[in-house]
Structures are given as C-alpha cells and as structure tokens.
Amino acid sequence: MSTTVRSARKGTTEAAWVRYTLIGVALAFMFLFLVLPLAAVFTEALRKGLDAYLEALKDPDAWSAIRLTLLAAAVAVPLNLIFGVSAAWAIAKYEFWGKSFLTTLVDLPFSVSPVVAGLIYVLVFGAQGWFGPWLMAHDIKIVFAVPGIILATIFVTVPFIARELIPLMQSQGNDEEQAAIVLGATGWQTFWRVTLPNIKWGLIYGVILCNARAMGEFGAVSVVSGHIRGQTNTMPLHVEILYNEYQSVAAFAVASLLALLALVTLLIKQVVEWQHEREMKSLSDLSPEPTVHLKAAS
C-alpha cells in the first residue's frame, strides 16, 4: 500500500511528528486548564474529610441556594424551549417583515454582558426604575427576589435552544411539512409527527446547553439577587460568599456539586450525540444511495 493511500486513510497527509505534537498540545492544554482545576476543586472540597464536606452541603443556606438554582433552571428551560422552537420555526419556515431583526434579538444575550443584563432589570423593575413605584404600591417584588433571578436566567439562556434549531430547520426545508398539510394534517399534527421527530436531537442538545448555562449563571443573577443569604443566593453566589468569608472547604464543597452537575450534563450530551450518530448510521445503512447523494450535494 502506497504512502499516499495510508495517509488518506488516516485522514491527513501531515508527518507523524506533526500529528503527535498537535495531539500533545491539545491534551496538555486540556489537562492544564480543565482537568487540573477540576481536580483541585474536589481536592479542596475533601481536604478536611468527608464529614466536613457533607456538613457543608447540609447547611440550610447551601440547601436554599441549591433549591433556588434548580428552580431558576426549571422555569427558564421550559420557557426558552417554547420560545426557541417558536422562533426557530418562524425564522426557518416563513418569510416576514422583521425576520432579520428577530434573528438579531435572538443573538442579543450573546453580545450583551450578563452584568449589563442584570442592570437593565434593575433599571426597569428596581425601586427607582420605570415600574418600581407601581410594583411597590402593589407589594410586588421582582428585583432582589426570586422573580428577578428567574428573569435574569431566562435572558442569558434565550439563544441556546433557538440557535441549535434555526440552522437545522433551515437545512431541512419545508417539503415534508407541506406534504403533510396537503395530505390533510393539521398544524399540530404536522408539528408533532413531522417537525418534532426531525429536530429532536438538536432540541435535546439545545435543552442540555440551556440547562447548563442556567445553573451556572453568575453575572446577571448577582446584580438582581441582592445577595440575601438563604433567600436569593444561587449556588454560584453562595460559593462566592463562602469563599470571601474564608470558608474554603464549604465553598469548594458547593463548587464541587456544581462541577458534578456540569459533568452529568456533559455525560448526557455525550449520550445524546452517540444516540444521534447511531441513528444516522442506521439510516445510512438502510438507504445508502440517497445518503451518498446528500453527502455529495452538501
């Protein structure tokens, strides 16, 4: 077998030392900036033993932060799911005035600092804000309360599901939906039986990313929370308070819980990607000719 054929099968024509150097640099970077800090978190959390670690997690303030973090994610993710699917469907399937403006709005949280987003909510709903006097008159609290934290979390996680679905739905086109409607399907039947099965993997992937960002958000939530211990502190804010008070073991214990949630998220993401690849491979085995044609066209 010629050298060219062997290199083609390996996917590259570079020399072996170049490949090994690039792989080594990538692994060293990941170890230095990802694996080592993650190991340091768990090492510091368990520095005084398992009892001290569990004691830090049993603290009422820690439990309050955990519950609030899960609550914010539990509210933000479903709402962003509804918005993401609706926005992606409108942008990918229809032509209308203001379409480019809607696309820009979807990307807005990516370009705006989370701290600025928090300040915007303070400006609008704070005591001296636009709606502050009316809210105070009706005894409604948004800023420095749970609703403000949920609003800030929703804002920073808006793009994740929509941005996963828009290019996917644009690449799929409208042919299958139009065929279903011609055959007599209603709008909901078309969505549940045609559109949703086609976008399910992108949708799951977007939900995973959205949930990860919701649980780990710090900047916007920090501005609107007021740092009220046991009431408006999420897990990232609770870690900051503990660390500033030199309670390093407790701080790293809660941080390790966040890290575990992140690792679980990555594991779920990996399983989703594996299932998607397996399904695509099954489809390609069932219909090899159309698959080759589509790959050639792309």
How would you characterize this protein structure?
- The chain is mainly α.
- The protein is 82% helix and 0% strand.
- The protein has 14 helices and no strands.
- It has helices at residues 3-10, 16-45, 50-58, 60-93, 99-111, 114-125, 132-137, 146-172, 175-182, 187-216, 219-225, 235-244, 248-286, 288-297.
- α4 (60-93) packs across α12, α8 crosses α10 and α9 (175-182) runs antiparallel to α10.
- The longest helix is centred in the C-terminal third of the chain and has 39 residues, at 248-286.
- The protein starts with a helix and ends with a helix.
- The model is unreliable at 289-298 (pLDDT under 50).
**Secondary structure: number of strands:** 0
H/E order of the elements? HHHHHHHHHHHHHH
Indicate the percent of residues in helices: over 70%
Helix-strand makeup class: mainly alpha
> Can you tell me the overall shape?
globular
Brief descriptors of the model:
298 residues, mainly alpha
Briefly, what is this?
This protein is mainly alpha-helical. It is built from 14 helices and no strands.
